[in-house]
Amino acid sequence: MLLEAAAKWARRGALVPVLASLLLGGCVGPGLLTDGTSVSMGTFNHGHLRRGRRLFPQGDGYVIPQLWQERGANFGTDELVSAIRRAAKRVSKEFPGGVLGVADLSLPGGGDSQLHRSHENGHDADLIWYALDDDGKPTPPVDCMPRYGVGLRALPPHETPGVMFSEFTPRRFDVRRNWALIRALLQDPEIEVQYLFINNRLRNAVLDYARNHKEDEELLDRAESILRQPGDSLPHDDHLHVRIYCSPTDRGLGCRDNGPLRSWRKRYKYMPPSPSRPAPLFARAGSSRYLTPAVRLSGK
Predict the structure, then answer these.
(1) How far, in Å, CA of 96 to CA of 40, rounded?
(2) Angle formed by the axes of helices 200-212 and 217-226, nearest 10°
(3) CATH number of 39-270
(4) d(CA 166, CA 142)
(5) d(CA 200, CA 196)
(6) β-strands 46-50, 39-43: how paired?
(7) Could you write out the three-class secondary structure of 26-44?
(8) Which pLDDT tens digit goes with each residue over 234-270?
(9) Sheet holding 172-173: strands in order across?
(10) Do the Cβ atoms of 59 and 170 come closer than 8 Å?
(11) Could you tell me how far CA 2 lies from the centroid of its own chain?
């Protein structure tokens, strides 16, 4: 027994110089020694993603069309990927038959993307609108992002350099399911949505539907605040762009939220890490000295 104990402590002692060399050599940074979950670092347009979670090509109520599967940008934080799966599953249960199309999230390690000015730290996702055919039946997503114009009818997609979209059958914007998707994201207790980028015409359509169906007033207030047409990019008449806030634990490792701090989010933004997910090693609550990142954050 004494020999076994001695060997055990010898093995533990052997780890000390290894850890010391890593620390002194600058090879350890935030997010490397953690509990094994994803870590979002930096901002949506100047960040990285460590141990990003992969969204599988198909699941309950959703599919990643082949065009976006081939890009390989189907990684996000644990929180974002799980939220997309929950939202798609909830909509499919409420209104069977519809399938959510999922386009780009982030690349495996986050960082710059040729087609996006954001999507860098695992907090952004592009969701293809639910659509109906001329008979009012759900139509599946294809390798295309049709725009929805006057009368909520589908129009040819925005031209995108280097991207060849497929043709699509006639379709129109499915107001009912798209509101259900927005509601599912806003009511998900595991995430906090910062923005849902959407064209103003489509925004008016889903909010009018929600009001006519007597949705909760507090939910409507949040939706009106969070649903926004961006002013510095395309109008998002072809997809819903989801952006979530940093989780409390990731914030301690360098994740930063740009943009407005809404009144109902003050507690979430500044509260300590959740006890259900312990603070990672070398980033315990109360510590003001974090290790220097091993990867320099870079942006466009």
Answers:
(1) 34
(2) 180
(3) 3.30.1380.10
(4) 7
(5) 12
(6) antiparallel
(7) CCCCCCCCCCCCCEEEEEC
(8) 778 999 999 999 999 999 999 999 877 665 555 444 4
(9) 138-139, 131-132, 172-173
(10) no
(11) 52
Q: What is the DSSP string of the chain?
A: -HHHHHHHHHHHHHHHHHHHHHHHTT---TTTSSSSS-EEEEETTEEEEESPEEPPSEETTEE--HHHHHHT--EE-HHHHHHHHHHHHHHHHHSTT--EEE---B-TT---BTTBSS--SS-EEEEEPPEE-TTS-EE---S---EE-GGGBEEPPPP-TT--PPP----EE-HHHHHHHHHHHHT-TT--EEEEE--HHHHHHHHHHHHHTT--HHHHHHHHHHEE--SSS---SSEEEEEEPPPHHHHTTTB---S---GGGHHHHHSPPPTTSPPPTT--TT---PPPPSS-----
Structure token pair of residue 286: 């109360």
Residue with tokens 């001329």: 134
With bands split at pLDDT 50, 70 and 90, how would you rate the model's confidence at 31? low
Other C-beta atoms closer than 10 Å to the C-beta of 176 total 17
Q: Letter for the amino acid at 182?
A: I
Residue 272 has pLDDT above 70, yes or no: no
Nearest CA to 91 out of 197, 208, 192, 175 is that of 175
Segment 55-98, tens digit of pLDDT: 999 999 999 999 999 998 999 999 999 999 999 999 999 999 99
Block residue for tokens 């603070």: 279
Distance of CA 246 to CAs 45, 112, 279, 293, Å? 14, 19, 14, 18
